[in-house]
């Protein structure tokens, strides 16, 4: 059969593109009509779609109709103003149009030569963001360091762990892999454990040190020092410390300065994960949570969480880019080119796991240019104000308690156990979570801290206003009233 396909016809792009933008704009206009947490059952889509792909083309309208009828019911609406689960994953008009341009150009920017603008814009935009965060100059691209956009914080911690591993192995010899030890608190995101698995760190040498309510779930420097000393006495090699600014469960902030000094005095790589809370640190009043970052070898924040940049965009900075390059570089014949061979350029393929990479800096650039620092600061402050408001609502209802001090825009709280029965309390809070989420009018998530089942209310969706927080609180109160009546 003759080829009739014109897959990149400019006029068709214009037509479908306009229709799709209209579809998405209408989605945002009506987003509150959907249950925020999808209420479908597992496997729901199999029954709605054919067993195999069509032989002949479908119409665009028909596909849009299917999206409306079959796909959207299975979507959990992360951009809904009633979304308070996990951490936010912001979209914005600026992020969206940046993403659109990236999809439109569809370059694969692994080496400078494959699209010089992609590499150079990424370096510039990450320097801008580093300055907004007041990162030490060593992290800027003018010196030995620099920033890179990874897909996720998980990839960020993996690549720096690999860099740190190879750096220490060059010093102590490859045979010492089994002796290498990694440290973090048990509140550290599970991505570190996954990175250790991939990096071949001995499973018993990933020390997740217990953090308790006595430090508000921050890692204790004394405990770290003791553990390192014990490991040194038995001939192990401490080489990597990971601290968090804003842990996933409860936004705990590890004391970077003292931890960093311990890492430095033991010749360890010090990584700081500020995936969520890093965004808040562009505000001068929250910047102190990053104090001590000058001791770090690498720092990471997810612009795709709370910084209006559509997923994915995880900003990673390192002080010594050569450590990354030494661990991750390959130089096959088919990629050789004059600029790379002459060491005149950054080739981001050597700072990450995959070869191919998208033009992600466009969307961050759009966000920074179209909004500006002051608006971004106000945006963050408003969410923190809403979280404080939610905290005040809880304080007025004696049936509930706030469990850990609120620092940023996450409130950790629970319904108090009846008659001090903790295990019944855990069950009750679990039931409350399910009851609220099954209404479809708000979506919250949970964690467990010191054996207590805790509800997490994370403010941070771009469309959330005070009325949404109030409505979610009303649902929580109503469901709590019913559950307490049932449990009498
Ligand atoms: N680190 C922290 C503190 C997080 O809260 C999260 C996710 O919520 C991650 C890392 C992992 O993020 P990613 O999905 O970008 O890998």
From TrEMBL:
Gene Ontology biological process terms from the UniProt entry: amino acid metabolic process; carboxylic acid metabolic process
Protein name as catalogued: Tyrosine decarboxylase
CDD domains assigned to the protein according to its UniProt record, in alphabetical order: DOPA_deC_like (cd06450)
Post-translational modification N6-(pyridoxal phosphate)lysine, affected residues: 305
Superkingdom, taxonomy of origin: Eukaryota
Family: Belongs to the group II decarboxylase family.
Keyword match Lyase: yes
Cofactor: pyridoxal 5'-phosphate
Any single Gene Ontology cellular-component annotation: cytoplasm
Keyword vocabulary terms for this entry: Decarboxylase, Lyase, Pyridoxal phosphate
GO MF annotation: an example: pyridoxal phosphate binding
InterPro entries registered for this protein in UniProt: Aromatic_deC, PyrdxlP-dep_de-COase, PyrdxlP-dep_Trfase, PyrdxlP-dep_Trfase_major, PyrdxlP-dep_Trfase_small, Pyridoxal-P_BS
Organism: Gossypium darwinii
Database matches in SUPFAM superfamilies: PLP-dependent transferases
